[in-house]
Amino acid sequence: MTHTATNPAILDVLEPLMNAVWPSLDVVELDGWVLRASGSVTRRANSVWAQAIRGSSAQEFRPTERAQPQDHRFELILRQTEKWYAERHQPVLFQVTHRPENIELDRFLAGQGYSCQSETLIMTSSTPAASAHNTHTPRNTGLVGPELGSQAEKITLEVADAPTPQWLALWCAIEGTASPAGRTIASELVQSVPSVFVSAVDHTGAVVGTGRMSLSGDWGGIYCMAVHPDHRRQGIASAIVQRLMACAFDHGASHAWLLVAAANAAAQGLYSSSGFSESGRYHYRREPDA
Questions:
Q1: If pLDDT is split at 50, 70 and 90, which confidence band does 1 have?
Q2: Where are the domains of the chain?
Q3: Tens digits of per-residue pLDDT, 170-222?
Q4: 58: which of 53, 170, 234, 276 fits an S-S bond (Cβ 3.0–4.6 Å)?
Q5: In terms of Cα–Cα distance, which of 57, 37, 62 is closest to 47?
Q6: CA–CA distance from 127 to each of 122, 192, 197 (Å)?
Q7: SS3 of 98, please?
Q8: Do 249 and 133 touch, CB atoms closer than 8 A?
């Protein structure tokens, strides 16, 4: 697995932000590892973030550290980590960002039988200039543009500070969160930090697309992108991204990030056409089945 950081400086900013805007419901720090659990709802909220601490005083993940062999140190912490997740009846899952500081950890986990899964791109962009958007645009805006074909006048974008039940139902369905308990956790996760929620609504009033922009200072993070299978390839996702970017600018954010599966070439193309480019990657390491 390659561990070259496309833009290390941006990753230094984004890794803490990504953790902050998707905060887990159950969190504990163990010798530099942040253990996160939220009832198995989404990988991000149920994985270990092994922080790569940098700086002259940092002791975490330094290849030159010789006070204790890294493998021995990792093994001690891993056994405690596995116990913590076992108590919650969840598998251990590590989120490993592609950067040199994580090479030793990733090698160690592979040696322990942890499988590599779900490689993900971290893409970033600047928010649009003020001149490109009217800050007084009505909250409900009809989609226009040839890419939407005959559906252009039948779908509107609705912006809110909280998800509607229909928004949550669609996103959970696409995400694969079906149980009532899981939907309750999902609702807590998406409302855990200040965010803007966009719903694409068809002429019957049904929500056919979702998006969320989490706000944190100069940055905004796009999450919860989903389009109903019957309404894909109509430009809805692109319109939601554009609307979220405008909302981020209106709330003072000058930059935005999003996450997309490395295997999803279509989504990467959509985001690239919206001005996003790759700034880094991460993958997950999952413990072997018992």
A1: low
A2: 8-123, 128-253
A3: 999 998 887 899 999 999 999 999 999 999 999 899 999 999 999 999 999 99
A4: 53
A5: 37
A6: 16, 23, 17
A7: coil
A8: yes
CA 276/CA 127 separation, integer angstroms = 10
DSSP 8-state secondary structure symbol assigned to residue 261: E
* Backbone angle region of 120, left / alpha / beta, with phi > 0 → left and psi within -120 to 50 → alpha: beta
Give counts: helices (H), strands (E), the chain. Answer: 7, 12
Could you give the CA distance from residue 252 to residue 194 in angstroms, rounded to a whole number? 13
* CA 103 – CA 65 distance, rounded (Å): 14
| Annotation: CATH topology of 128-253 | Aminopeptidase (3.40.630)
| Helix 265-273 × helix 236-250 angle, to 10° | 50
The answer to whether the beta carbons of residues 240 and 209 sit under 8 Å apart is yes
Kindly write down the DSSP assignment for every residue of 132-172, as one continuous string.
GS-TT--SEEE--SGGGGGGGGG-EEEEESS--HHHHHHHH
The answer to whether the CB of 269 falls within 8 A of the CB of 121 is: no
Percentage of the residues of the chain whose pLDDT score is greater than 70: 83
CA 208 – CA 17 distance, rounded (Å): 29
pLDDT exceeds 60 at position 56: no
